Amino acid sequence: MINTYTSYQLIARDLGKALSRVEDQPTVERETEYYLKNITKVKSVDEFVKNDRLFKYAMKAHGLENMSYAKAFIAKALKEGVANKDSFANKLSDKRYAEFVKSFNFAELGDKATVFNKAQQGAVDKYLAQVKLGGGNPNSPAVQQEVQYYLDNIVKVKSAKDLMSDTRLYAFAMKSFAIEASIPNKEMMEKVLAGGVRDPKSFANQMTDKRYAAFASTYNFEAFGESATTYNPAQKPAVDKYVRQTLEENAGKSNEGVRLALYFERKAKKSSPTPPSPRSCARHSACLNPLPLPTSTSRSSCSRANSRSRPFQIPRSSATSSSASPVCGKSTTLPPRYSSQSACSSAIHHPMASQPTCCLPCIR
Asked: What's the pLDDT score for residue 205?
């Protein structure tokens, strides 16, 4: 039987091929085809949650499949959106709900939520606003002709070079952000687009005029590559997440450790280089801690966990710890090589670290 590490390496070594195999599975292929064909027809929260097949696909894509039954709960989160820090989704400790709402942002985008793209409808709205501010008529034939040309051609743009080589598209985009004075300065605009906005120290983010950062965010080739002008979080990104979740679930059917390793590998790409401390991890569910702690400890508050002067260390007295999880009672074993590591650090630095099987549904 292949061990956990080898099984994980077989998948991680060529992750693209592994994901392609999942995409080609008849069930996945059929569900994805249905999703892409119908998600753009959804115009409201009610339509979304009523279409059970679409809704379950979206929930699974965000690791929330186990909550697919709670439609009223999800509908409330979707209707309140995420713009307000006190909205329902933002108040939930599990940030997957806020991410879900961002992907299907009906609260902000209304009936355009599943089709909206910053470089398409977003830029056009800004362009028309600038025309109006300049005293022009947004509905004039000349303006509408420019809008139509832009919408017909912006979807063909695959790079910053493509955008800047089409003088008409480039001028439209620049005017949308009221920075047409910089049209001749293509060298500077290339730097703006090349750096993107993900890095706080990028060229655009360091400029005092924040319109340039907004421009880079709209034409975000740095983050989305060729999909920048067609990107919508409710479409292809949701499909990619669904396929990844399915890959992890399939791996977990034969080896729970491989599923955990793939989960940590995915999360590591989104997190900062410095792993969180054991005290910060204490905010998560007690089932993330595979230590044989007493039940009273698992019920202690986050404030008590955070008040510890130093992280709890796994006892060195035995080579292997094995006991029942304080959460579900299932047996959990910590390999010898992690016996001197703190629970949180071992999980971050060693993705193959053993975890109680009850953890899997709650840490997707």
From this structure: 96
C-alpha dihedral sign at 106, 112, 116, 121? negative
Instruction: Report which secondary-structure segment, H or E, holds 322.
Output: strand 321-324
Residue 201 CB coordination number (10 Å):
7
How much is the pLDDT for 1?
Answer: 67
What value does the mean pLDDT of the chain take?
80
CA distance 202 to 233: 23
* DSSP per residue, 216-271: HHHT-HHHHGGGTTT--TTSHHHHHHHHHHHHHHHHHHH-HHHHHHHHHHHHHHHS
Which helix H or strand E contains 324, and what residues bound it?
strand 321-324
Residue ranges of domains in the chain, CATH in brackets: 1-114+232-266+333-364 (1.10.3700.10), 118-227 (1.10.3700.10)
Coil vs helix vs strand at 29: helix
Q: Does position 309 have pLDDT exceeding 90, yes or no?
A: no
Residue given tokens 């986050």 in the structure block: 302
